[in-house]
Write a structure and sequence with these properties.
Length: about 200
């Protein structure tokens, strides 16, 4: 039975992509985390990049409307050698963020290395190591297009761990990771005045 003073929070985690978007949802009750859902949105069959962005937006809004998360944690695009790929990933991330902003969710961004460090203790961990640690932590067996789904779930769990580490008094430095939160369009615009015309 839940105690009256134990806060509950649902976190939606997204690993944005233009071929596959991974997502995971967890419910945090005090220090306890439990899995709500994980899965993928496939876009390989869509030829037009703009249609892929539309699918990301619509699916993100649908996840928010279905599960009513309190916040979105999203993986930042990593710096790769191919600038076109990075541009497309940035667009995918931006569309997922816009969908969350349209529903007034708090949004926090994490660098891939920060997420891996948070889940496994190793910023260079493989996707398989992250997935295995999440299976052990959240006690699940199902494997729907496994590694893309667990990448999204990892972002949600990472976000939960950040609050727990700050609430227990330990310092929360983003070791090599970026973390920026927005609680709506107003704060985003205020912090990014030069980027908004």
């Amino acid at each position: 039975m839940q105690q009256a003073n134990t806060k509950e929070r649902i976190i939606l985690g997204i690993d944005p992509g233009t071929a596959v978007m991974g997502y995971g949802l967890v419910k945090e009750t005090g220090p306890k985390i439990e899995l709500i859902a994980l899965g993928v949105v496939k876009m390989e069959k869509l030829d037009d990049h703009m249609l892929k962005l539309q699918r990301i937006f619509e699916k993100t809004v649908a996840l928010i409307d279905n599960y009513h998360p309190d916040c979105l944690a999203i993986e930042a695009p990593f710096y790769g050698k191919n600038i076109q790929v990075m541009l497309k990933l940035g667009r995918a991330q931006g569309v997922a963020i816009a969908a969350a902003l349209s529903r007034n969710l708090d949004i926090t961004e994490y660098a891939p290395r920060k997420i891996k460090q948070s889940i496994t203790g190793n910023g260079n961990a493989t996707k398989e190591q992250v997935a295995a640690m999440l299976q052990s932590l959240l006690k699940f067996k199902e494997t729907p297009d496994f590694l893309d789904a667990t990448d999204g779930l990892a972002v949600a769990v990472c976000h939960s761990f950040q609050r727990m580490s700050t609430s227990t008094g330990s310092s929360s430095k983003s070791g090599g990771g970026s973390k920026k939160s927005y609680s709506g369009w107003d704060t985003f615009v205020k912090d990014n005045a030069k980027r908004v015309v």
